[in-house]
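So, can you check these C-alpha coordinates?
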Amino acid sequence: MVIKHKYLLKTEGVWSNTDELLLCLDTGSWRTERPVLDKEKCNYCGLCSLFCPPQCMRDKGDHYEVDLAFCKGCGICVTECPRDALNMVPEGEFADG
Protein backbone atom coordinates (compact mmCIF):
# COMPACT_ATOMS: atom_id res chain seq x y z
CA MET A 1 0.00 0.00 0.00
CA VAL A 2 1.37 3.42 -0.97
CA ILE A 3 0.31 6.55 0.86
CA LYS A 4 0.59 9.69 -1.22
CA HIS A 5 0.85 13.10 0.41
CA LYS A 6 -0.31 16.07 -1.56
CA TYR A 7 1.85 19.09 -0.72
CA LEU A 8 -0.03 22.27 0.02
CA LEU A 9 2.63 24.62 -1.37
CA LYS A 10 5.11 24.17 -4.19
CA THR A 11 8.02 24.88 -1.83
CA GLU A 12 6.90 22.27 0.70
CA GLY A 13 8.66 18.93 0.60
CA VAL A 14 10.85 16.48 2.48
CA TRP A 15 14.03 18.36 1.54
CA SER A 16 15.05 21.58 -0.09
CA ASN A 17 16.77 21.67 -3.45
CA THR A 18 17.79 25.32 -2.76
CA ASP A 19 16.17 26.48 -5.98
CA GLU A 20 13.25 28.03 -4.12
CA LEU A 21 12.56 29.52 -0.70
CA LEU A 22 11.53 27.19 2.11
CA LEU A 23 8.13 27.49 3.71
CA CYS A 24 8.40 30.40 6.20
CA LEU A 25 5.68 31.18 8.69
CA ASP A 26 5.32 34.09 11.09
CA THR A 27 5.68 32.32 14.44
CA GLY A 28 6.75 35.23 16.63
CA SER A 29 3.45 35.31 18.52
CA TRP A 30 4.21 31.90 20.11
CA ARG A 31 6.87 33.06 22.51
CA THR A 32 6.50 34.11 26.14
CA GLU A 33 10.09 35.40 26.37
CA ARG A 34 12.38 37.05 23.84
CA PRO A 35 16.18 37.21 23.57
CA VAL A 36 17.60 40.70 24.14
CA LEU A 37 21.17 41.55 23.10
CA ASP A 38 23.68 43.59 25.11
CA LYS A 39 25.83 44.96 22.24
CA GLU A 40 28.69 45.87 24.60
CA LYS A 41 29.17 42.21 25.57
CA CYS A 42 28.75 40.80 22.05
CA ASN A 43 32.00 39.89 20.27
CA TYR A 44 30.22 38.93 17.00
CA CYS A 45 31.22 35.24 17.23
CA GLY A 46 28.04 34.04 15.48
CA LEU A 47 27.29 31.08 17.79
CA CYS A 48 23.78 32.42 18.46
CA SER A 49 23.08 32.38 14.74
CA LEU A 50 24.66 28.97 14.23
CA PHE A 51 22.56 27.25 16.90
CA CYS A 52 19.26 29.10 16.33
CA PRO A 53 16.77 26.39 15.17
CA PRO A 54 14.54 28.66 13.01
CA GLN A 55 17.60 30.69 11.84
CA CYS A 56 16.06 34.00 12.87
CA MET A 57 19.32 35.74 13.84
CA ARG A 58 20.13 38.47 11.30
CA ASP A 59 23.72 39.59 10.64
CA LYS A 60 24.01 43.36 11.14
CA GLY A 61 27.76 43.61 10.48
CA ASP A 62 28.96 44.06 14.07
CA HIS A 63 26.30 42.07 15.94
CA TYR A 64 23.39 39.70 15.35
CA GLU A 65 19.80 40.89 15.77
CA VAL A 66 16.80 38.66 16.42
CA ASP A 67 14.07 38.69 13.77
CA LEU A 68 11.13 38.65 16.19
CA ALA A 69 8.65 37.64 13.48
CA PHE A 70 10.20 34.16 13.47
CA CYS A 71 11.72 33.81 16.96
CA LYS A 72 9.89 31.20 19.04
CA GLY A 73 11.63 32.14 22.30
CA CYS A 74 13.33 28.78 22.81
CA GLY A 75 16.41 30.38 24.42
CA ILE A 76 19.01 28.24 22.66
CA CYS A 77 20.83 31.36 21.45
CA VAL A 78 21.07 32.56 25.06
CA THR A 79 22.40 29.19 26.22
CA GLU A 80 25.05 29.06 23.49
CA CYS A 81 26.35 32.63 23.88
CA PRO A 82 29.80 32.34 25.53
CA ARG A 83 29.83 35.98 26.70
CA ASP A 84 26.27 36.13 28.12
CA ALA A 85 25.44 38.91 25.67
CA LEU A 86 21.90 37.56 25.20
CA ASN A 87 19.27 37.32 27.94
CA MET A 88 15.69 36.09 27.88
CA VAL A 89 13.21 38.79 28.90
CA PRO A 90 9.45 38.17 29.43
CA GLU A 91 7.23 39.44 26.62
CA GLY A 92 5.12 41.34 29.17
CA GLU A 93 7.90 43.90 29.50
CA PHE A 94 7.47 44.74 25.80
CA ALA A 95 3.66 44.88 25.71
CA ASP A 96 3.61 48.65 25.17
CA GLY A 97 6.06 48.70 22.32
Q: What stands out?
A: The chain has a mean pLDDT of 79. The helical segments are 47-51, 76-80.
